[in-house]
UniProtKB/TrEMBL annotation:
Domain of life: Bacteria
Name of the featured protein: Uncharacterized protein
Amino acid sequence: MTVTFPLTEKRDAETLLKHLTSHNLSVPGNCVVSLKAHVAQVSSSHTTALGTARTAW
């Protein structure tokens, strides 16, 4: 499953990584993060954790 996370000044890539870790998702352990200009695409087979992380973002 791949989910897009919007990035802003307050919600940057470093904040996203901390957020993912709080939902038991870690790079490169069980997810992959691809950064673009204003979004991050996160892929993981842990769909429940990823969906929860996206909803809480």
